[in-house]
Design brief:
2 copies of one chain form a homodimer. Chain A is an alpha+beta fold. Chain A contains 9 helices and 4 strands, in the order βαβαββααααααα. In chain A, a hairpin with a 5-residue loop joins strand 3 and strand 4.
Chain lengths: ~220, ~220
């Protein structure tokens, strides 16, 4: 597995999850920026469509020993793949029930919050329905984080599931960043905030931060 | 693992996915109906909130040998758990890259389509925004299925990934049923329709059909 490249956008939460995973696994990769907004979105251009016809970020690309070029998209399947090929350090607990719980928490973000407030949904809400896309996004973030806080509490140690980082934490941190951008009051989610601070103390999470990426736009 | 119970609603696509998985694995389970619409939704009542505070379907419940009662929600993590505890017959290919592709296809449905047209989103669109919730749902189904058709084509054999049923097929079949309910023209997705017909020939898929469930309402 050589020539690892990640097609990414600094603020894309799905890209951010995979960046965390790559850094946690200690894998070196080239960063290929795809601007989700400029010129109507570079993901719709011919160059990126040849890489990923679904026009979503991120895409992970690499070359196998036999020369085959491989590509994968969808953040959780990419992370599960990295886990299978590079098992240490693990992104999932060893116990099957706790593994399932970590995946469940990750899905509460991945399918329960993020799809309802991603860029294409917000654009359609605003342009087709004339709706307040930010209020919509804030609503689903708050509702989702309420469920996540309740689900994390009985499982949490230092991180979402016990004392080891897992997929749940990888999904949590980028979502809280998104929620702040939509103006969501995070005070009702003290467990999530505490875990976020633990994660931010780790070098892998620091290296994956949006403002540390080559395509970041200074505030 | 005894006393397997599935909290389900006949038309819930996420419940349906887990029903397929249980039947494919040959696992016997009790069916506990939770009506998503009646009386404002039984999932919001105290009885079900004690089972699943996130108020989503399905929830799988069982008792371990030591007497511990276990519960899991979120359809894909539940299916991954069943795969780890009951590996045969497999719901994922043996090859890591193909496993990832199957998970990717499953996520195109699970996070790419279903969340945008689930009941709570449709209710909010209609009640808060006065929008045409069915047109909204049809749009995201068509857009998602277009991406899925393109992604499946290079991978498909008899099923979505080669000639063996996997998580991708488990997610595909309930989504096509949903797309029909929203009036989506499925003619542009011939590969998906062909695979759906293959799936429907299998007893496990037949047993999981909505109209075969105890809480089904005759048309």
């Amino acid at each position: 597995m050589t020539g690892l490249r990640l097609y990414s956008y600094w603020r894309s939460s799905a890209s951010w999850r995979v960046r965390i995973g790559l850094h946690l696994k200690g894998l070196t990769f080239d960063y290929v920026p795809v601007h989700l907004v400029k010129d109507g979105g570079e993901q719709h251009g011919a160059a990126y469509r040849a890489v990923n016809p679904m026009r979503t970020l991120p895409t992970l690309e690499w070359t196998e020993a036999d020369g085959a070029v491989r590509r994968l998209s969808q953040s959780l399947p990419v992370l599960e793949y990295l886990e299978e090929r590079f098992p240490a350090p693990a992104l999932l607990p060893a116990d099957p029930y706790l593994r399932a719980k970590s995946r469940m928490l990750a899905e509460l973000v991945n399918s329960g919050i993020q799809p309802l407030q991603n860029l294409s949904v917000m654009q359609r809400l605003k342009q087709e329905l004339g709706a307040d896309d930010k209020a919509w996004s804030a609503y689903w973030n708050a509702r989702g984080l309420e469920g996540l806080e309740a689900a994390v509490r009985p499982l949490a140690g230092r991180f979402c599931v016990g004392d080891t980082v897992s997929l749940a934490d990888v999904c949590l941190v980028p979502q809280l960043y998104g929620a702040r951008r939509f103006g969501v009051d995070l005070a009702p989610y003290p467990t999530l905030l505490r875990i976020e601070a633990e994660c931010q103390s780790l070098p892998a999470f620091q290296a994956a931060q949006p403002d540390r990426q080559p395509d970041a736009v200074p505030a």
